[in-house]
Structures are given as C-alpha cells and as structure tokens.
C-alpha cells in the first residue's frame, strides 16, 4: 500500500535539514580561514634591527668570520629567510666586499649588489632560498674557506651551494651565479651598519625577486615589530 506523507511532517524534516546544513557551514568557517591564504604583505621595505633570540642587538664586531654555523634572519617577510655572513679569506681574516655589478643570466639584466658592511666591510646577507626551485638550509648553505662543495663543475669553496640540483652562488661577488641550473642570482639584503652602536639593520632587497614570491613584499606575513631575529640554524658540517 502506498504511504501517504503528512505535509506538515515533511516541512518539519525539511527545516531540520536546513538548520543542520547551516550549522555545518558555520562550523567549517573557522577552518576555511586557514585554507584560503590571506592577502598579506608590505607596501614598502621596512628597516629592521638585527637582534639575537633575547632581543639584544647583534654586534657586527662579534659576528664570527667564516663561520660554519649558519645564521639566518627573516626579511622583509617572515617567510623570507636570509643568510648573514661575515666573509673572510683563507687565513680567517675578514675580507672587504665591494659593491659589484651582477648579471641575471635568465634575462641579461644587470644590477649592483651592495658591498659589505661592518668594521671591515665584510658582512653581507643573501636570500637563503635557492633561486632554482626553492630549496633551503640544509641543502642550501655557505661553504667557508676550508670546506668544499661538491658541485657539478667540480669541488669549490667560498660559495653558497645547493645540493638539490647543483646551483652555486658567489657570496663574495654579490651572490652571482657560478653554476646552474639556476638562472637567477641570490637576491641580496642591503644592510646598514651604525659604527657608533655597532648595530646592523636590514633596509631593502636588490636583485631578482625572492623565489616563490610574485614580489619580495607580498606572499607572507609582515614582521611584527622593527626587529628581526638572527637564528643559528645549525652547522651543516657538524
Ligand atoms: S633548488 Fe637549488 S639547485 Fe635546484
């Protein structure tokens, strides 16, 4: 026998379904916030003081020369790590790094990478994201004098090398490309040194856009204040 449905019962069941659906969507809303990345960024480069994990300013004079430890800080956005290097010669003496013209092999364009800062003009900073396909530490790191990178073009020292696919960059020459496959040099951080306080500041980036970003200023979270923490992320040789 055919079942006859009571219209009022059907309306009641339908309204229950509507309420349940609305509750499900409302419950999902908080997690949706995390599924859709917020459009965040900066409108201009900030000037950030480099500090240690306790918030004390990094003193340029106490930054170790040719350190196998890897020091990194975020700039300009919190997901944009950079190496902080105090470059030296084979004897461990700091080396003055002059500004230098760097070519972008992919486009043929040129820009001037900043020279070193600090008491010996030997302190430089470069993006710590490989410009080929985005590998980071520990695949990408500095090989100080006495430490050898096994590049696809033979052993090299005093380079930043990426073991993912063999890209090599010269931090003594503005982060220029030494070996591919990368076609883009490492973007450089323009540092400032205050000789009266011995403090270091990050002021802007030069060079190609940081890998993985449409612009250096977009695609991540801005810093929460006017400092950025220099972290010791490890010793890749240890
Ligand atoms: S990601 Fe560094 S060489 Fe490919």
Description:
With 238 residues, the protein is an alpha+beta fold. The chain has a single domain, classed as 3-layer Sandwich (Rieske Iron-sulfur Protein), CATH 2.102.10.10. It is 12% helix and 30% strand. It has one helix and 16 strands. It has a four-stranded mixed β-sheet with strand order 13-14-1-15, with no helix packed on it. Strands 6-3-2-16 form a four-stranded antiparallel β-sheet, with no helix packed on it. A hairpin with a 5-residue loop joins strand 10 and strand 11. The radius of gyration is 25 Å and the shape is globular. The N terminus is likely disordered. The structure holds FE2/S2 (inorganic) cluster.
What attributes characterize this protein structure?
238 residues; alpha+beta; Rieske Iron-sulfur Protein; 4-stranded mixed β-sheet; 4-stranded antiparallel β-sheet; 1 helix; 30% strand; binds FE2/S2 (inorganic) cluster
Structure described in brief:
This protein has about 240 residues and is α+β, with helices and mostly antiparallel strands. The chain is built from 1 helix and 16 strands.
Distance, first to last CA? 82 Å
Annotated CATH architecture: 3-layer Sandwich
CATH topology: Rieske Iron-sulfur Protein
User: In the CATH hierarchy, what is the superfamily?
Assistant: Rieske [2Fe-2S] iron-sulphur domain
Which structural class best describes the helix and strand composition? alpha+beta
Question: Number of helical segments?
Answer: 1
What is the total domain count?
1
């Amino acid at each position: 026998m055919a079942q006859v449905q009571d219209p009022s019962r059907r309306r009641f069941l339908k309204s229950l379904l509507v309420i349940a659906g609305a509750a499900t969507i409302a419950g999902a809303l908080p997690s949706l916030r995390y599924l859709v990345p917020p459009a965040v960024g900066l409108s201009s480069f900030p000037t950030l003081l480099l500090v240690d994990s306790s918030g004390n300013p990094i003193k340029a004079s106490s930054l170790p020369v040719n350190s196998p430890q890897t020091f990194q800080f975020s700039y300009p956005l919190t997901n944009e790590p950079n190496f902080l290097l105090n470059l030296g010669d084979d004897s461990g003496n700091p080396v003055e790094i002059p500004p230098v013209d760097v070519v972008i092999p992919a486009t043929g364009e040129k820009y001037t990478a900043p020279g070193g800062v600090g008491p010996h003009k030997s302190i430089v900073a470069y993006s710590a994201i490989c410009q080929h396909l985005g590998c980071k530490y520990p695949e990408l790191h500095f090989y100080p004098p006495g430490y050898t990178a096994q590049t696809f073009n033979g052993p090299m020292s005093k380079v930043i090398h990426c073991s993912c696919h063999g890209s090599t960059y010269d931090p003594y020459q503005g982060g220029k490309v030494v070996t591919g496959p990368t076609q883009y040099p490492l973007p450089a951080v323009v540092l400032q040194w205050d000789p009266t306080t011995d403090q270091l500041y990050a002021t802007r980036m030069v060079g190609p856009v940081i890998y993985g970003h449409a612009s250096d200023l977009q695609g991540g979270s801005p810093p929460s204040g006017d400092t950025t923490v220099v972290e010791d992320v490890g010793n890749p040789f240890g």
